[in-house]
Amino acid sequence: MNRAENQIIVIFGGRGDLAMRKIVPALYELFIQGLMPERFAVVATGRSKVDDEVYRNEVSSALTGKAGKEGGKGDDDFMRAFFYTTLDPLVPGDYRELAGLLNRLRSEMKIQGNTLFYLSVPPEIYDEISPGLAGQGLNSEADGWKRLIIEKPFGYDYASAVHLNRLLLEHWEESQLFRIDHYLGKETVQNILVTRFSNGIFEPLWNRNYVHHVEITSSESLGVEKRGSYYEGTGALRDMVQNHLLHLVGFIAMEPPSSIDSTSIRNELVKVFESLRPVKPEDVRKMTIRGQYTGAHVKGEWLGGYREEEGVSKTSMTETFAALKFYIDNWRWGGVPFYIRTGKRLPTRVTEAVIHFKPTPHYLFSGESACEGCNQLIIRIQPDEGILIKFGMKIPGGGFNVRNVNMDFHYSDLAVDRIPDAYERLIHDCMNGDSTLYTRSDAVLAAWKFLDPVLQAWKDDPSIPVYGYPAGTWGPETADGLIEEPELTWRYPCKNLADDGVYCEL
Ligand code: BG6
What we know:
This protein has two domains: 7-151, NAD(P)-binding Rossmann-like Domain (Rossmann fold, 3-Layer(aba) Sandwich), CATH 3.40.50; 184-482, Dihydrodipicolinate Reductase, domain 2 (2-Layer Sandwich), CATH 3.30.360. The chain has helices at 17-32, 52-63, 73-80, 92-109, 126-135, 158-169, 187-197, 228-232, 235-253, 262-275, 284-287, 422-431, 441-460; strands at 7-12, 40-46, 82-86, 115-119, 146-150, 177-179, 211-219, 288-294, 296-298, 301-303, 321-326, 338-343, 350-357, 376-382, 386-394, 402-410, 466-470. The longest helix has 20 residues, at 441-460. It contains 13 helices and 17 strands. Helices cover 31% and strands 20% of the residues. By secondary structure, the protein is α/β, with parallel strands linked by helices. Helix 1 (17-32) packs across helix 2, helix 6 runs antiparallel to helix 13 (441-460) and helix 10 (262-275) packs parallel to helix 13 (441-460). It starts with 6 loop residues before the first strand and ends in a 36-residue tail after the last strand. The strands form three sheets. It has a nine-stranded mixed sheet. 6-O-phosphono-beta-D-glucopyranose binds next to loops.
């Protein structure tokens, strides 16, 4: 990775949770690795009135305890690069102030017009910020590039995403728009492409002839925490499925791109999304399950239900768990079911994809059940990142008794001292103008188009149940019924990739 060009980074929502938890620490990591530009400034904006010093102290607190934080001159240089300006997105004069500050910094620091705007604010404000910046000519590339990072959710459904796109494209070129999905910044998500396309052994099996079904789980043990009011209007389908989970599906299912450049990869991704078979309204009940966590004792501690969370209605029907079964209508995947699920307050935090290969056509040894769970390739996104293959081996001794054994690779074995956070990679890519791991508008729209019928049915048909599930369980039991074959179930993953059954650490 190389040092980025000199530039100014403007963070809208600079005092917000995302800025302090992810964006600022990512900039700091890039800084200590020597990947930040030689000359840069970070301008944070927000409605509150604080000065540079107060803001720099907040930045410093956000970095407390970060590995590598030296507390020496390097840190002082980093802190001094931060500035704060009050900006109410509805007030045109505030954009003028921002433009003035940018001009001053550019001339003092001898930085060209290169500017990265990071919109870390609620999406309803994008409608104001985009024309506000354009009104001051801050979208013009005459004096250097201008890029806009847009946080998810990008729209609320298909129609609102079309509207938002149109609005942004009034002032910006598509090449200036960087729609972020932090899952694409995860090393292990990118590694799906490397596993598939740098090895000859998997690809011949990676299709309907050998794959029985694909299962993707992204479970979280936390609840909605302090984000109840955001989550109420969002739910698991919009929060996790429309973006993170469908991207995992895209990486698992895509055809080999002609090269590793942005256009080729994004072309293949969108082909997958456009091949997702829409769920017919009459099938929504059969192909999808929604749930909401209820209060329960977990490991001796009482965890309240979703409806008791701050900012959540007592009669809320918002789903905190979603599971879907669907098909990808193309030559590679025709007829192969994909099962995906995500939920909050599940037993553990795990994200993984499981490729279930077809069983042998004629089983010779000790009955079918002897190798339950064999023929699986598990791609673990987090935690204990790695890859696990489960297959049958002979148990030493008489006869031919078979046992399911593991062949596992843990990402930590690659001797890297740390796996970089997704935001580091993505922000650095944007600084360098690389949009490969950002979402193109056609992909966002195709993903919404696929989910719209489900969203519609869940909204309009109150007879589709929102199943309650006790905190600390794997979601509604009815989700097991999505997998139609009685001998198959979801995998119930452990925190440690290679652990199984009774040894499971959650
Ligand atoms: C965010 C969602 O996009 O992803 C959160 O809004 C969720 O609700 C988070 O908790 C999960 O991200 P990660 O990286 O912890 O898997």
